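=== Structure Prediction Worksheet ===
Name of assembly: unnamed complex
Input type: mixed (protein and possibly other molecules)
Chain count: two
Listed entries:
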Amino acid sequence: MIEKIQHSPHPETEDDPQHINILVVEDTEDDYNLIIRKIENEGYQVNSLRVETAQEYEKALETDNWDVVLSDNSLPQFDAISALKITRKKYPFLPFIIVSGTIGEEVAVEAMRSGANDFLLKDNLARLAPAVEKEIRDSKIIISKAAADEALKESEERYRLLAENIQDLVCLHNPDGSYLWVSPSVYKILGYSPEELIGKKHFDLIHPDDTANRKEEYSNLFKTNIPGKVVRFSYRMRRKDGIYIYVETILQPVFKSDELIRVLSTSRDITEQKLAHDLLIESEAKYQSVVESIAEGVILYDDEGHIGAFNKSAAQILRSKAASSKAFEKELLENFQFIKPNMSVYPQDEMPAPVTLRTGKPCSQVIMGVRDRGDLIWLSMNSQPFLQPNGNVGVVVSFSDITEQKVYEDRVTAVAQELTNLIDTANAPIFGIDWNGKINEWNQVTAKITGYAKSEVMGKKLIDEFILDGYKVAVTDLLKNALRGKDVTNYELPIYTRNGKVVTMLFNATPRRNLHAEIIGVVGVGQNITELIEYRERLELKVAERTKELNEALMKEKELVALKSKFVSMASHEFRTPLSTITFATNFIKKYLSRLQPEEVLRKLDKVEEQVGHMTYLLDDVLLIGKSESGKIKLHPVVINISDFCKKIIEEVSHSTKNTHKILFSISCKTKEISIDEKLLRNILINLLTNAIKFSPGKDKVLLDVICTAYKLTMLVRDWGMGIEKEDQEKIFEPFHRASSVGAIQGTGLGLSIVKKAIELQGGTIEVNSAVGKGTAIKIEIPFA
Amino acid sequence: MKKILIIDDTLHLLEEISDILRMEGYEVITAYDAFDGMRKISTSNPHLIITDILMPEMDGFELISKIRSVDKHQTTPIIVLSAQAAKENMQKAEELKANLYLRKPCTADELLSSIEKLLN
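=== Predicted Assembly ===
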């Protein structure tokens, strides 16, 4: 149904005014063609489209840029009023002309009211082209006007928003300073409404102090006639409530044809910044005064290592009178010598400031000596990086004069070293332990005694490493006592040495205290008494030996005393019996002399002599025993002919025993001459032979065998007599012992004991071999001296 | 005639005492040890006994107690003639009811007067 007619080209004007896009709302094809032809006839080149319904119309409106709409009034499914309404919704200025066959007056009025631009009757289309032309033209004018209005409106709105919303105070002034226009922000800043300020002068709101000297300057500002010159300044302004605020203002003159007509001011409330700035100033002043007043010297170095600032103390400490940083730096470099604590030269690049500058790391408590024309000043120096205003890192160096402390410290250190040396080299073992029993002191003598070097034992537990098991508990208690403040004196402490030996220390433990008198450990001072102990042990051994000897001597002495007592009692008994015999015999003679024959008297006298002789022997024996017991007998060896000697003794014994027995004698000798104590040998032999004869009564012989070799003399005496009981054989050598079997046989009880002593004196032996009833054999051996 | 028994292991002393007592008119019996003495007491019933103390095998004390244990010798005078001087020996002799303790050596008169006294 929609037709689009492309008409033949039409001669065009330069502006191509005859080119028209026409949208036609028409149900009749003929009417449409008529309308289009009518316009083309007027010389227009028409581009047109016919629609019949609302949908087609709406779509067509969107698809092309129509210059005009021509609408029939009434269509079967559509009508002009509806089309107009659709049109005006979106295109208020698109010319809309009703072209109708008939039209009522009411409809026409209604259409015009609804915004139709014109209406024409189909039967009178002469006016169509001019109407179209006119409406298109009018529409264009209206459109451009509306666009201009809109642009203006937008621009105004933008300025208004800008002026109303900016935080700053924006004002327009007359050249005399009076307010022409004031932005709404004035209310927030100064408490006035814009209207209240119009006509007032700007100066009147400025703090009198701020205008006093500069009134001229201010007024000139508003009169300056240099185009484009912007002036910026700050001052205090009085708010409506009387409070002054700091503002910063920019003034901009506005010229018209070289004539100053307005001044634009833009002011900003800088009270907060100002206060902050003041605080900063104040703080800096304080900081400055602190830096200036502190006793520490402070020097600021910039990032190139040059001195930027220094305080008074820095100059004072270094005895400098330099006024400027530059002079100060020069003085430092040229006049001073820097020294390390060990008195060597301090290299420039090892000093704190260059080090911190190089590494960015702080240095602390650096001790440095500074020599200035002789005086040596000791400094303790810290350095720290800081951010300079220019963004680079500089160094702040602070230092204090510790010369006095240093001198004192050196002295204390020297004393401490001296004390340490004293302990270390003391000629006594000194060692220490801490609260945990760990070794913290170990001097040279201790190391020497134990064999452990100080470095090996430091930190080790004394008890675990050095104390003998049996002493651990005791020593632990001892050290605990010392840690509680009790002194321990003269404790004998055996300790292990490296080679496993045990040495004994005489040990004194004293609590070790710090400067505050708090106990921090134990110091042991010892004395190596191992030698003393060994000496003591040797002495004890000696004493024991001596005691034993003494005891032995005492025993011997006791034995001797007992022996003596036995001697006395025995001897008295042995003497009393012959004395009784003698007494009775002499009494007998005296009493009965008249009745006696001379023979009888002689017999009694013989008896007396015999008993006197016995007593004499007895006395000799007793004296001999006494001598031998007290060790007073000395050997007197003489050379004798052993054979002759024996024969002589045999003769004597035979005679004294009245020849009751024959003494059988045999001798076998390598040499006849031997060296021997003759007296002792004589005693031995007489006793043995006499005994043999005495204790073999009824027998007629005894035997004597003598053998001598180069080394010893052996003698054997044998009888066939009564023999000796077994239990008696051990006792027969005791003085005064007489065997049970001897019965009434006379004897002193000293014979064999004398024999034994005599043999022992010469280093010989005696052996008894006897059987009861069979006889006895006694063998003696005497080595030659 | 009174019988006196002398007991001593020293033969020559035994002889001397015997000689003296015989001269005084006593019948003398001798024994050279305690056993011999006991035998001779039972066989000859002496009126008085003189004994030594220190003798082999049985000493004088044992002999005295044995003599006193025989009924008819409970009162027979006993004279101890000893070289021993110890007090305890004298005491012991007294306890055993020996009548007299004479110490060697004593004189013939001492012995004779003691015997005379004891026999009357």
